[in-house]
Amino acid sequence: MAEPSVAEVTPPRFSEVESRVARIDDDARAVDGHAALGDAVWLDLEHPTTDSAGFLVDDQAYAHVAPSDNATPRHWTLGVAVAPEARVDGTRRALVAAAVGHVAAHGGGRIVLWVLGARAEDDAELAAEGLRPARDLYEMRVALPLAWQPKWPAGVRVRPFEVGRDEAPWLELNNRAFTGHPEQGGWTTSTLARRTAEPWFEPALFLVAFDADGLVGFNWMKIHAAHDREPAQGEIYVIGVDPRAQGTGLGRAIAIAGLRAVHERGIDTGMLFCAADNETALELYRSLGFDVHRVDRAYECEVPPV
Q1: Taking a C-beta distance cutoff of 8 angstroms, is the pair 67, 49 a contact?
Q2: d(CA 36, CA 81)
Q3: Span 155-175, mean pLDDT?
Q4: Which of 22, 29, 78, 259 has its CA 20 to 30 A from that of 41?
Q5: What value, to the nearest 5°, has the Cα angle with vertex 222 and ends 193 and 157?
Q6: Residue 106 and residue 114: Cα distance in Å, rounded?
Q7: Is residue 200 within 8 Å of 222, Cβ to Cβ?
Q8: DSSP output for 214-236
Q9: What does the DSSP assignment read for the chain?
Q10: Tens-digit pLDDT profile for residues 196-252
């Protein structure tokens, strides 16, 4: 069988192909029950770097690779969507190979490919391109409303995030709480600005908690509109608690508060992503009624420069 013809898409043409990419992702979603491309791809399509690149196989498959926008640890993010009719001819392998070649030609580095709803056959296919399973992420869901009210630790006050006021303390706490985390660690002012400029961002759903010493916790919520077979969902986009407040119940309280806030908007399903090896967080979420809905997997490889 002939190798698929892969066409490179440069950043100035991203706006031209975005609707085609959306159709490919929708075709994949119709069969898989979930999207193939994550937020990082859509964000970079809208606001690309000079080193970003896309790769198309007709209107059947797309891969997108871009340098991560957090400061540390830097890596390349890769997303791949393949429509059902193109899943039998090595299309995904050809797209991954093209992305690996692009990274090699732009200084090399670590590639991270997230496969949403990963299966055992993904491990074998991607291993042929040098990508190995690195970590699993659980998508977890819970029916809303929850039965609990938030119980705040003494001296804690909570309010919505204020743009122009809370960026610096939030970045400091986030980066301390997620030191070394590939996606959430090392955020910069521009990383945060890109997220808060997204159409879905609502300061009222970004809760920040303070004690006598300053910012001590946060829960940033994101609402996803209903799509195909998926209900509208309120996602705990990122949640964190300063180590000085761990064990006080703040994490549980601010999680409940955020989920109550989205339920007040008419959302009946809560959702979050949690690392499969984060037992402490999993214990909390399961105590709130969350169950695993899907397993996503990160595949990684180091690409030498050429």
Answers
A1: yes
A2: 5
A3: 98
A4: 259
A5: 80
A6: 21
A7: yes
A8: EEEEEEEEEEE--BTTBPPEEEE
A9: -PPP--EEE-GGGHHHHHHHHHHHHHHHHHHHSS-SS-HHHHHHHHS--TT-EEEEETTTEEEEEEE-SSSSS--EEEEEEE-GGGTTTTHHHHHHHHHHHHHHHTT-EEEEEEETT--HHHHHHHHTTT-EEEEEEEEEEEESS-S----PPTT-EEEE--TTTSHHHHHHHHHHHTTT-TTTSS--HHHHHHHHTSTT--GGGEEEEEETTEEEEEEEEEEE--BTTBPPEEEEEEEEE-GGGTTTTHHHHHHHHHHHHHHTTT--EEEEEEETT-HHHHHHHHHTT-EEEEEEEEEEEEE---
A10: 999 999 999 999 999 999 999 999 999 999 988 899 999 999 999 999 999 999 999
Report the interhelical angle of 250-263 vs 279-287 (nearest 10°): 50
Query: What gap in Å lies between CA 211 and CA 224, rounded to an integer?
Result: 31
* CA angle centred on 85, ends 111 and 7, rounded to 5°: 50
Query: Tokens 């985390």, residue?
Result: 181
- Pick from 110, 127, 125: which is nearest to 303 by CA? 110
How many CB atoms neighbour CB 258 within 10 A? 26
Handedness of CA 227, 230, 232, 236 (dihedral sign): negative
CB 184 within 8 A of CB 237: no
The answer to whether the beta carbons of residues 261 and 221 sit under 8 Å apart is: yes
Give the per-residue pLDDT at 216: 98
Q: How far is 43 from 183, CA to CA, in rounded Å?
A: 14
Confidence band for 1, pLDDT divided at 50, 70 and 90:
low
